[in-house]
Each structure stands twice: as C-alpha cells, then as structure tokens.
Amino acid sequence: MSLLRDRSVLKVGVACLEDGALLLADHAAPVRGCVDLRHLAGRHPDKARLLRRPGLAALSQYLLGVHLSKGRRLRCSNWEADALSADQQEYAADDALVGALLFRALLEPKVPELTRSTWPRVLSACQGLVDCKYKPSHAARQHADPAVSPPPSAPAPANRGGSRTVPTSYQQSKQVSAGYQLRKSQLYDNARLLAPDDQPLSVVENSKARWYVYKGLGDIVQEDPLVVKLRFEPAGRPQQEGNHGYYYLQEKDNCCVRCGASDGYVRKNIVPQEYRKHFPEIMKSHQSHDVLLMCVSCHQESNILDLKMRQRLAEECHAPIGTEADVKVREDQALRKVKSAGRALLKSRDKLPPQRAAELESVLRDYYGVSTITDDILHSAANMCTNHPNSEYMSHGEAVYRHFCQPGRGLIQLERRWRQHFLDSMRPARLPELWSVDHNHAKIRWKIRRADWPLRVREDIWRRCIGSEYWDEKDEGPVMGPGPGAGRVREREEEEDGQDVETEDGGEEIDVEEDGEVDVELEDEDEELEDDDGEDVEVEVEGEVDVQVTEEGVEEKVEENDNRTVNGYGGAAST
Questions:
Q1: Does pTM top 0.85 for this prediction?
Q2: 3'-5' exonuclease domain location, by residue (predicted)?
C-alpha cells in the first residue's frame, strides 16, 4: 500500500490512472504517481505514427517488436477469481514488463540511459504528466487510425501555442474534483488574539480578529501577521485548559493533513455531521479540532474508507443504511393504483380498450363508493397524494446516536472511535500538534458538573455523553496548569444537609496566589470544625487564616492571636 501511495515511484502503462481509480473504488487502495505512456508518445519525435494506434499492443509492436496477445476471451475472463490461471498470470506479467520497457524506449531520445544520476532528467521529461488523465488532443485524433480509434469527441481547449492545456496534477482535474467546492483562499490566516495583559488567547481568521476592532472591542497591535489585543477581560484563558487550550494557540498549515498538498484542498469533518447533529449542545461547540484540510484525492479516499466504518456501526447499532425502513416517506400502493386509474381515464380514455377502461372505472368506484364516475372524481383521483410519512423511520445517524446514549457507552466513545478511525485509515503525516482522540472530553465532564442545570438534567446529559449510570463526583476536570502536560486541579462540589457553602458574596473570601498559596479571610468570629470522631471543635479566630496546599494535604495556620494548626484532608483537629 505504501508503494502504491508513493508519488515518487512512477507507475507506467496505458490507462494506468483509470486502473488506479478502480483499485481505490473497489479496495480503498490509492494509487499515485501514474504516467500514461500515451502522454510520452505525444512527445516522441515519431509521434505521428505512434498516435495512430496508441494502445499498449500497438506501441509494443512498433517500438519493441514484441507481439502481445490481446484476445477478447482472455481480456474478459474472470479476473476476480481467487486463483488466476496460467494464461492470466502471463498476460498480467507481460503487460507490466512491456509497460516498463516502453517507458524506457519512449524516453530514450531525451534520456539515453536510466540510472540514478539521470533520474532527475526522467522526472523533468515527465513534468506535467504525473497523475494526469490522458485525453487525445486534436492533433492526436488527426493521426489516429480510424479503423481502431473511437469516434472523435469535442476538441480539447487549446492555449495560444495551439497545444492542449494539461492539468498539473490529478487532484485538480475535473474528473476528481467533480462535486467538490475547492477553497479559493487559505483557511488558516493564523491571526492572533491577545488578552489585555498580552497573554495569547487564540489563533483565528483575519476576518474574526478584525471584527473585534470594528466593534471597538480590540486594537490592532501588528498588521502582518495580524495581532489584535482585546479591550475587555475574556471569560476564560486557554492556558488554564492545558493541552485542550494550547491546541488553539498554535499556528496551522494550509495543506492536506495526509499528504501535505498545498493546493486544491477541502474541509474534512472527522466526525460526520449525520451523527454530530444529534449530539447535545454541550458537545456541538464551534471548535476546529475535528475539521481538517485534505486535498481532493485524499478526501475521496477518506470518504470511501468512512463507508466501511458506517457499515460497521450499522451492524453494531442495528441502524441499517438504504433499507425500506430508512426512508422518510412511503408511497401507498393502493392509492397509487387509484391515482394511476384516474390519470389514465382523464388523459387517455379514448385510446383505452373498453375492457381496460371498465377495469379502471371499477377501481375508482370501489375507492370512492359511487356508482357513477364524474369529472370531479377523475380530477380528484389524478391529483391525490399517494405518499405518507413513514412512522417507523429513523435515520442511520439518529439510530447510532441513540445506541451510544445507552448506559455503558456514551457519545464521547463514538467521537473517539471516529477520530481513531481517521488516524488508523488515513495515517495523516501533517496532523497539527496536540491533536488527540480524547480532545475536549475532560472539559465536557467539567462543564456538565458545573452547569447551572437541575440535577436530573445534569445526570441525564452525563449519562448520554459519558455513558455512566452514576453521578461520578470524583471524575477529574479539565487539565489545568501553565503548559501542555501539566497536572490537574480537581474541583469538587460539596453540598451537605444543613450546611451552606459561602462564596465571595458571603462570609468567606478566597485569593489564589501565583505560588500556589491560598489566603482565606474569615469574617465570622467563630468557626466550627469536626474531628475524626464526629465531635465539634470550636476555634476562635479573630485574625487571618493562611491555608497552604502541600503534598500531604492542606495545612491551615492561624496567625496573630493564635498559632494553632488544623490539618485538613482527614487529619485530626488539634487545639
């Protein structure tokens, strides 16, 4: 497979590009680096004679003096058999060998010898021909033998020199790009947004960065590359989210993530929209992690491989694709028969045999329960609607979504599987750093636990997204810290019966210092603590209490009026 994908290894033959397209469609095996020998024949000094019969057998006979057996019976034999016959093996081997010899013979006027030192001259001679579909030019059709050539088609567009314009790559040819809307501009402008304190916030498009300037929310710091500093404090900082946040701070290349092609690319949704559109809103955030750039050729191959993944999900989730149950609207066959009878009698009654006309009238009388067929009945029957909604309809994407919403599964597993499928099937070589199959999953857990929703709603969203049947209070939140790979800060909610949790609006103020020390100022004079035995311990506090986080727990030191120490995290309260 790697040899077929390698564009630097030339594959030569007649119509080899079309054969490669069949391999891609049938076996998901991409073939790159194809050179059609007919292109080289058109550049040969004796092209007038070569183009008369540009088939492999004719070229072999003229240039090599070798006769190839091209009998119809052998060419149309069963090439999908598990074991090929001796004649089939010889036929295939001769084609491959003759193709290589013809390549050498056609290049001989320009490159007399094929060696490592002359290989750059070979590539120069094939410039503009690699992965380019052959289409006979007007001159080639003039030289063609009418006894063996197909009827001439419309002449190819010509440039000012009169020669045919040849696409520079197969990815840009109309045959491949049909149905694709190629980008006319770069996707990633890599404009930077800065916080008021000059800390990087994200890398965005130029239009989005200039929107903040237009709205008076930011100022341009630098034009090229564009840097905009915001005038307001953002809701969050990406540095607090570890790898998840740092992914959006890096610049991205405008190239195919698979092969590195820098032109003719389109967007690729790693998780298909037919699944993601059913996800809860918390998993449908506007983020670019699962939208990557691919060239048309790689995009086609990826879509073909995605079909296999969809088929596996269809079998696993009992979500068939393309069956009768997978249609939104069904046609009522009884109504269709009535409508057909009405239209036939209304438009072609004079042309119908009497017996057939009587049969159609009988159909209408039975349906409408009348003895006489009037024009109103005929018009009503001819214009009736025969379609009705399919009450059993459920799209493939929705069925898969519901399957993964069940306990023990979770939608993040479906998201992870599609990401892993992309990595395994395409093996992208230019994937952005920090791209991960688990991207955003820790943040989703944290956001659900912190959401201002009723408890039952949070538990329902948790079960659908995470797959757990229980409310996992110990699950860690998003990665926090100064850089990629930093540790985690566990944020937990503690709500006990009869106990109020005070915030900064109440009697407790918490300041987090840069060195990790937490200062807690208590406004109440008395605090009640509880020791290991459940007994209340009263501590009178009139000053400040410093709380320092250590590896062994939390140590609170009461200063000014008292030097008593209280050990948190399971330690006994000493007075």
A1: no
A2: 3-107
